[in-house]
Design goal:
lyase; globular; mainly alpha; 213 residues; 11 helices
């Protein structure tokens, strides 16, 4: 099952002229330090931690920083740092025990009119999203934002601890794809300083489709 995926990925990377290098341990350590300090600095204020205690927050940040540095080695450090902050926010939401519905009554209307959201997570994430999305073109920016909406809604569904009705065979896959952030992960690989979206929409779309699986 992995062979077609790997073959497709290699073909896509070859088409885009992707090359890689072997990074030294020293460079990895410098990148880890840089991304860690940037991410930690963002979450120093209690308002950005959204009620998460410091010890738990530290564990979240350490996990996400390692993921970013080792999974996104080609990204510029400023992009890597902003993504690290973004993914830390997703872990905070996934870990949150607060009920969502009470703060979502006007979400859609507020979104359409550009009004401030009532949910604390959206308030914090909306403050950060412009910093992240400035690194991407319009297609990838829209994809990341849309994937963020899906992730939030998936977490909202999971609050009910509902495993799906009997014989609802599509439900588990539906929920997994909704809050799996596959679209975001795929789109985030293509910052505009390295990729011209207008030339690579087919390749970018293919990567997003594969990452979603």
């Amino acid at each position: 099952m992995m062979e077609p995926y790997v073959t497709s990925l290699i073909r896509m990377l070859s088409q885009m002229g992707y090359t890689d290098v072997s990074y030294s341990s020293e460079e990895r350590e410098l990148n880890l330090r840089h991304v860690y300090l940037k991410t930690t600095a963002h979450f120093v204020q209690p308002s950005t931690r959204l009620g998460t205690d410091v010890k738990r927050m530290q564990a979240f940040i350490q996990t996400i920083v390692r993921m970013m540095v080792y999974s996104y080695p080609k990204l510029p450090l400023d992009v890597m740092s902003d993504l690290s902050i973004y993914y830390t926010y997703t872990v905070i939401l996934d870990d949150c025990k607060q009920r969502t519905a009470d703060t979502m009554q006007t979400f859609t209307v507020d979104l359409i009119h550009g009004s401030e959201q009532r949910h604390p997570w959206w308030q914090a994430v909306n403050q950060h999203l412009p910093s992240l999305l400035k690194h991407y073109g319009p297609f990838c920016s829209m994809t990341i934002f849309r994937s963020t909406l899906d992730f939030f809604q998936g977490c909202w569904i999971e609050e009910h601890e509902f495993q799906g009705f009997k014989n609802s065979h599509n439900y588990p896959e539906f929920l997994r794809r909704m809050n799996g952030l596959g679209h975001c992960v795929g789109a985030s690989l293509f910052p505009k300083q390295d990729f011209d979206e207008s030339k690579h929409i087919p390749e970018i779309s293919t990567v997003i489709a594969e990452m979603e699986q």
